[in-house]
Design brief:
The chain has 1274 residues and is α+β, with helices and mostly antiparallel strands. Among the domains are: 43-236, no CATH class; 544-670, 2-Layer Sandwich (Beta-Lactamase); 700-714 and 724-769, no CATH class; 836-966, Beta-Lactamase; 1031-1127, no CATH class; 1135-1271, Heat Shock Protein 90. It has 31 helices and 30 strands. Strands 2-1-5-4-3 form a five-stranded antiparallel beta sheet. Helix 1 runs antiparallel to helix 7 and helix 9 runs parallel beside helix 11 (410-445). The longest helix has 62 residues, at 1031-1092. It is elongated, with a radius of gyration of 46 Å. The two termini are 14 Å apart. Residues 1233-1238 have low confidence and may be disordered.
Length: 1274
């Protein structure tokens, strides 16, 4: 053993030495590697740049190969259709609309270059195609408004007709920075990520490399090895390469240092475990764990090694520990560290008091101080718990309850796990403090502990209320605090009185901690939403003229330095898309300011424009164009609105040459009322605290001079609500909160009052209060994740423990619960799925009906004008849009002819060509309506198309739900919230009821099973008491009667056998005794005769007779010894055995008893030399005696010390009287009415027969402890 230990230490020492040597070597070799890097940098930089350029070319080659394979497949399909005489426009459409081509833009033109089929907005028009017919079979780059494509043109000639085929794949897109678009990665973006550098692509064979020494430029070649563009990227920098090398070496050193620390910590922990002081062990272990956590923090592990959403500080970052929880991953490592400390401390306190060491004598002052400190720490834990959950909400950009997602993102999932770990840690720590307080009270009080525990509970509740009232910012609510304290004390009661395995206890602890943590989370989320509502109100009123002027000036400065804008004005381009790009990248978009951006040429003619608003007074500012001024800011008065306008003009120059002009016109106070009619894609994403509430669902009201002047669409205030708003008690900041019933729903309002030039103005912003279903859904969103995590961990630990057991089986109760859950949950999910599908179908039908009604209204309005009037079509459509208040687009076969939002089409957000499936259904198949789905800037929209008949022209009108907001009875989000909340609650109820019912059904079976097992082991005192009048009651009654009859029969048989044995023994004894008595009688008669006859041989006869008598007496003695040996108990079968499973088997005999029977043993194997059956009888005797003495709780604790195994059997019965204590091990002594008094006597004889001892270690009114000491096997 010592040799193995020395060998183990040598290995550890060798590893530590190697780590130190490698660490020092890495530090020494760093300057050498850096110097080598610098000396060879010339060749290295060229090689790195070449590799990167080759990777870029290879990536484009793969794209080209894909295009070639797709165009071959299309040509093959067209040939087949031609051979089958099915080459019609409809079949061509069906071919290119297949799913395999969905990621490509495909268009087919006939030999006259007329477009006949397409699957998305065509990339090349007929003019472009005519100019580039010479590129047949080659790939080339095309820029179409906001997208850049890699395209391939090919020609297919058949017998009767021929086709030009263009297949394109997008490689980059200028997209709005919405959440959906940020998650989508274009081809160029993926290249940038793969190469970790910025890539700039210039299109065209005539493109030239940028004249910048920092850039490395190479041509991009197509499949014919012709130049089609130039790609530029930053040259590999020496400083960056050196920094990267140093960072790699630093990471290596950090890992080595961490391994060294872990090995050293392992040795320290081994040393700590040898200490007898629990407080010292806990303190030192905590210091080791915390020091390793601090080391990880300073080494930037794991955040420095992992770069994804889990290590993103924007998801969560707290100031705790100087940034020790600066990301979800860092939070997880910190939480796990404190969990380990909490678990160890909890086990130490539980083991300390179970070992009876915590019952020593201490002063009243020390106990009182201990209780006061424990209560104070308990209250601090509650406050820390609340503060931590508040930080999780307020220091995070994750909105846990805003969006519904059954499967959370990795960052959200990890944060939910962190919350669970945090709650579990707090609960364990709180429970340890309660155990400490309970033991002090128990030691002082002794009896009636439950009554004093209830008193302590109410005292702590009162102190908690007082503690919160003394805080400037109390944590949580009074109700959550009461539940936290109640759960803590309930768990304490369960811990004291329960008889469940530690795994089941931890399962309950984790569920309780999850309930409190999620309750706190929902409370603080409501506080965040309230704060967000307030900030939203100020966000609406904060835009002023000076701020708008500054934003305009900043936007014009950025445009002045925009090289892409200069290039477009020089070479020509899509100017509306350029205007959109300027708006999208400016503060105008991010601040939600409605504006129009217009580009002019040198002659002040409009080149293109983009407007984020449908304001009719946002006309262009061409009158302000001045060649003598570079930048102008001109305030204006709006003609049709109460707000002001600000115009900004930029003269765009290239050196001294004027290239054109840029004008921007913006509306001041462009707030919610302006954004209501805007498409969702043009409304900026709200960030920070503003993102906590759904801006679309807010209701906003503006009162001027005590009159309601404006309100959100679909939401009006009645006179009573207006009166209450006007009478609201504003504070000195002009703010107040108010609750009002609006449209039969309770709403929370934040009011701001200020004085303007026009008079007193009140802005009210309202949010609907969440109903019971919504709150249920919010709660179960997180609790569901916690439950899954708890179940998985519990299952894993159960399986690990299962491997340690020799046999196992699934209980009857578990089978019942499983059956109940299956027959209850499966229909529940089916009903939920049915309701969801039914509601979705109804919503789809309702939306389709609304959109078709809109189309019919438009058709009925415009068709009479189109057929009978010579008025310009565009004017007719504009009039229809204005009077019907509908946003729509109209297409001819050749393309878009009208749109209510022309800026969106001109900029390229919507396609200019009619939807291909709509064309096929309406034009080819002659249907009247078509409903379809499209995607615009990552947002999915529903569209409806209908045919309009004009004079000799067929037009198609489109209406979509992005430009025409439709209200559904129950939205998909509201439906998910309702179903998840209600059905999750129903699932909890089902689980609870199933558990209760299965327990009630299986409990009698368990009792019968336990009683049967006891009877099979010879305990005929076992009985079953079942309060049931049904079949189970009859079964229990029959079982009890059977056991009574067996016991009576056994008594009768024993009595008969005893009497029969005595008869046989008497016969045998009589026979055996009779044999020596006969010669003895004859000898004595002979002696008497010789004496009477005065025989001279009397002396010899006397000696002979006495010798005979003595011999026969010896025979009688031997007979007596033989019968004595026969009456002894059988000899013990002494073997080496593991005492732990033997005691476990005894415990299992009484698993169904109401009394608590607990077995505590830290070691898996303790080997002694004993007889298994005799040892079981001894323990059964002690357990039965304890229960007969009124014990409610029995604990068997086994420990091995030097040379001996100690078994302590402790109960909380009435104890043993002092006068009876010396007699309990005497044979035939008993204090019970029934019994023979042999149990403890025989136990003592057996234990002493194996060189052990059994004594009463302690006895008083609180219980008795028997100590059994058995020598360990050699």
């Amino acid at each position: 053993m010592q040799i193995a230990t020395l060998k183990h230490k040598k290995i550890k020492l060798t590893i530590l030495t190697v780590l130190v040597i490698v660490f020092i070597a890495s530090a020494l070799i760093e300057p050498i590697l850096v110097n080598n890097k610098k000396e060879s940098w010339g060749e290295t930089s060229k090689e790195l740049a070449f590799r990167q350029s080759q990777k870029i070319q290879d990536a484009f080659d793969v794209k080209s190969s894909n295009l070639i394979s797709r165009i071959r497949k299309i040509k093959s399909s067209l040939r087949m259709l031609n051979e089958e005489k099915r080459l019609t426009q409809k079949n061509i459409f069906e071919e290119i609309l297949k799913k395999e081509f969905s990621r490509y833009s495909i268009q087919i033109n006939n030999s006259q270059l007329k477009l006949i089929a397409w699957n998305s907005d065509p990339v090349a028009d007929s003019i472009y195609l005519y100019r580039n017919k010479g590129l047949k079979g080659q790939t080339f780059f095309v820029k179409k408004k906001l997208k850049q494509y890699l395209s391939l043109i090919d020609f297919l000639e058949l017998q009767n007709q021929s086709f030009w085929i263009v297949v394109s794949c997008p490689i980059s897109e200028l997209a709005l920075p919405t959440k959906v678009n940020l998650e989508r990665i274009s081809f160029l973006d993926s290249l940038r990520q793969a190469l970790s550098t910025d890539i700039d692509l210039l299109l065209g064979s005539n493109s030239k490399a940028k004249q910048d020494g920092r850039l490395y430029s190479v041509p991009i070649l197509n499949n014919f090895k012709n130049k089609i563009g130039v790609v530029s990227f930053l040259k590999p920098a020496l400083d960056l390469q050196v920094a990267s090398l140093k960072a790699w070496l630093q990471q290596l050193q950090n890992i080595l240092l961490l391994l060294f620390s872990w090995l050293l910590s392992h040795e320290i922990v081994i040393t700590i475990r040898r200490s007898n002081s629990r407080l010292l062990k806990f303190t030192l272990l905590s210091m080791v764990i915390l020091s390793n956590r601090v080391l990880l923090f300073f080494l930037e592990i794991p955040s420095g090694l992992i770069s994804n959403s889990l290590s993103d500080a924007s998801n969560f970052s707290s100031r705790f520990g100087s940034g020790m929880v600066r990301s979800p991953l860092e939070f997880f490592v910190t939480a796990v560290s404190f969990l380990i400390i909490s678990l160890y401390g909890y086990r130490q306190i539980i083991d300390y008091y179970k070992s009876q060491r915590g019952n020593g004598k201490t002063s009243l002052l020390a106990d009182s101080a201990g209780v006061v400190i424990a209560v104070f720490l308990y209250l601090l834990l509650w406050r820390g718990f609340g503060a931590s959950i508040r930080s999780v909400i307020f220091d995070s950009t994750i909105r846990y309850f805003k969006e519904f997602a059954l499967i959370p993102s990795p960052a959200v999932f990890l944060m939910c796990v962190n919350i669970l770990i945090l709650g579990f840690t707090i609960f364990l720590s709180s429970l340890a403090l309660l155990v400490f307080m309970h033991r002090i009270l128990l030691k002082r009080i002794g009896t009636n502990e439950w009554k004093y525990l209830v008193a302590l509970f109410f005292v702590v509740q009162i102190l908690g209320y007082v503690f919160d009232r003394t805080q400037a910012q109390p944590q949580g609510t009074d109700l959550i605090r009461v539940f936290f304290f109640t759960f803590s004390f309930a768990i304490l009661y369960f811990l004291i009185a329960g008889n469940k395995e530690i795994l089941f206890r931890y399962f309950l602890y984790s569920l309780a901690s999850s309930i409190i943590a999620v309750s706190l989370l929902t409370y603080y989320n409501s506080q965040l939403e309230k704060e967000s509502l307030k900030n939203s109100a100020y966000d609406l009123v904060r835009v002023n003229e000076e701020q708008v002027q500054f934003i305009l000036y900043q936007t014009l400065i950025e445009a002045k330095n925009n090289s892409a804008l200069h290039e477009d004005l020089k070479t020509g381009g899509d100017y509306s898309s350029t205007a959109f790009s300027i708006w999208m990248k400016s503060l105008l978009y991010r601040e939600g300011i409605n504006a129009t951006i217009t580009l002019y040429d040198v002659q002040k003619n409009i080149l293109g424009s983009f407007s984020s608003s449908d304001e009719s007074d946002l006309e262009n500012s061409s009158v302000h164009l001045d060649t003598n001024k570079d930048i102008q800011i001109i305030p204006q008065q709006s003609t049709f609105s109460v707000g002001k306008k600000v115009a900004g003009v930029l003269t765009i120059r290239d050196a001294d040459k004027i290239l054109g002009y840029l004008s921007i016109t913006a509306i001041i106070n462009s707030n919610h009322f302006r954004q209501e009619s805007l498409p969702k894609i043009l409304i900026p994403e709200r960030v920070g605290i503003l993102s906590a509430v759904d801006y679309d669902n807010l209701k906003i009201y503006e009162l001027m001079n005590k009159e309601l002047v404006r309100s959100s669409k679909g939401s009006e205030l009645n006179d009573e609500n207006v009166r209450r708003i006007l009478g609201a008690p504003f504070d000195h900041f002009g703010e107040t909160w108010l609750e009002l019933e609006i449209n039969s729903e309770m709403n929370l309002l934040f009011l701001i009052k200020n004085t303007t030039v026009q008079g007193e103005k009140i802005l009210a912003i309202a949010r609907e209060n969440k109903n019971f279903t919504w709150n249920l859904s919010d709660f179960f969103k997180i609790f569901f994740i916690h439950t899954v995590v708890i179940f998985i961990i519990s299952l894993f630990l159960w399986l690990v423990n299962l491997q340690k057991r020799i046999t196992y089986s699934i209980s009857f109760r578990a089978k019942l619960i499983t059956a109940f859950l299956i027959i209850s949950v499966v229909p529940l999910f089916l009903i939920a799925a049915y309701i969801r599908n039914l509601t979705e179908e109804k919503n789809s039908q309702t939306l389709a009906k609304l959109m078709i009604e809109n189309i019919n209204q438009i058709k009925n309005y415009v068709e009479p004008y189109l057929i009978s009037s010579d008025v310009n079509q565009k004017l007719i459509f504009e009039k229809a849009s204005r009077e019907l208040n509908k946003k729509f687009s109209v297409y001819s076969i050749n393309g878009e002819v009208f749109s209510s939002n022309p800026s969106l089409y001109e900029a390229g957000l919507f396609g200019e060509k009619l939807n291909s499936e709509a064309y096929m259904n309406l034009i080819s198949n002659k249907n009247n309506f078509y409903l379809g789905k499209e995607e615009v800037q990552g947002e999915k929209i529903n569209s409806a198309f209908g045919v309009i008949h004009a004079a000799n022209v067929v037009l198609v009108v489109e209406v979509n739900d992005m430009l025409n907001k439709s209200s559904l009875p129950l939205s998909e989000f509201e439906l998910d919230v309702f179903l998840f909340g209600v059905f999750s609650f129903a699932l909890i109820i089902i689980i609870v009821i199933s558990t209760i019912l299965s327990g009630q059904i299986s409990y009698p079976i368990k009792k019968l099973t336990a009683a049967t097992r006891a009877v099979s082991n010879g305990d005929l005192s076992a009985g079953v008491s079942i309060n049931s009048k049904g079949e189970l009651g009859e079964l229990a009654s029959g079982f009890n009667m059977m056991v009574q009859k067996i016991r009576q029969n056994q008594i009768d048989i024993a009595q008969f056998e005893r009497e029969e044995a005595w008869r046989e023994m008497a016969k045998q004894v009589a026979h055996e005794i009779k044999n020596p008595l006969t010669p003895m009688k004859l000898s004595v008669q002979q002696l008497i005769t010789a004496y009477e006859d005065k025989s001279p041989k009397f002396n010899s006869i006397f000696e002979k007779v006495t010798a005979t008598i003595i011999s026969q007496i010896e025979t009688l003695k031997n007979i007596a010894s033989e019968f004595s040996n026969f009456a002894r108990m059988p000899s013990a079968n002494l073997v080496k055995l593991n005492i732990v499973p033997v005691i476990t088997e005894v415990i299992n005999l009484y698993s169904e008893q109401k009394s608590s029977l607990e077995f505590v043993c830290r070691e898996k194997e303790i080997v002694v030399v004993a007889d298994s059956d005799h040892l079981k009888r001894t323990l059964v005797n002690l357990i039965r005696n304890a229960w007969q003495a009124g014990a409610a709780k029995i604990e068997i604790r086994v420990i091995s010390s030097v040379g001996f195994c100690s078994i302590r059997v402790t109960d909380d019965g009435k104890g043993i009287d002092r006068e009876n204590l010396p007699k309990i091990f005497e044979e035939n002594y008993t204090t019970k009415i029934t019994g023979m008094g042999l149990g403890l006597s025989m136990a003592k004889k057996y234990i002493e027969s194996i060189n052990g001892k059994i004594v009463v270690e302690k006895t008083d009114s609180s219980g008795t402890t028997f100590l059994i000491s058995i020598p360990l096997a050699q």
